[in-house]
Amino acid sequence: MALIGRERPGEDRDGVTDRDMDAQSYAEAVFVQEDRYLKEIKEDIRARGMPAIFVPPVVGAFIHWMAKSHDSQAILEIGALGGYSGLWLARALRQPGGRLVSLELNPEYARVAESHLTKAGLGDVVEYRVGPALESLQQLDRENARFDFFLIDADKENYPEYLQWCVRLAAPRAIIVADNALQGGRVYAVEHREPSTEAVRRFNQLAAADPRLRALLLPIGDGLVVAEVVAPGPA
Ligand SMILES: C[S@@+](CC[C@H](N)C(=O)[O-])C[C@H]1O[C@@H](n2cnc3c(N)ncnc32)[C@H](O)[C@@H]1O
């Protein structure tokens, strides 16, 4: 079967060949444009031997599209790695005045992410907070910080807690997005009982049942939960 992507010979599609092109790579090839700054982040992450666990381009483009459509002014990212999703998000911020706060456990990763956003001209809109995200979230609450868009993409065991914190820190009608909601299919395979899978299952159930949220799970990438906060505040 002939497959149609972007018809530009030699274009880098991250090693995707026609033979292994599937719905997601087709969607990326036709609709997603990564500029040199986004591509450089991924190359740098690989060159440094950091884990290449950034969101796929279609998810980057989707969170950008959502945050921009939502006219986001204050975005909170949990899990920065090298700044790949952070750059998609920072570019969606309302300007002037928008800001991205990004939480990262590893100080070296936060430094790499910050250098990439600075290179892309967005160093002044992003603030990296280094340390366990649960501590940074408590601190943000003490500062009375509020956000209108969230990306949860850090340690899976804490996803249920991250959800509660995001609702607490949410401005009215904020959007919460969480990556890896399918865990490579393990969430719906009952034999998988690892703590990370159990935690994401619990997260999905909480997001689906919480009356403060209007939530969906979209099976793109490794699964994205997307929720609108219809009633912010504590449970
Ligand atoms: C999947 S990566 C984030 C990828 C990034 N969102 C992207 O798409 O470019 C997860 C990140 O969460 C960080 N992390 C893990 N546990 C954390 C914790 N308890 N607090 C804050 N960050 C954490 C890891 O160091 C890692 O950089």
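^ S-adenosylmethionine complex. Residues 1-17 have pLDDT under 50 and may be disordered. The domain at 57-229 is CATH 3.40.50.150 (Rossmann fold).
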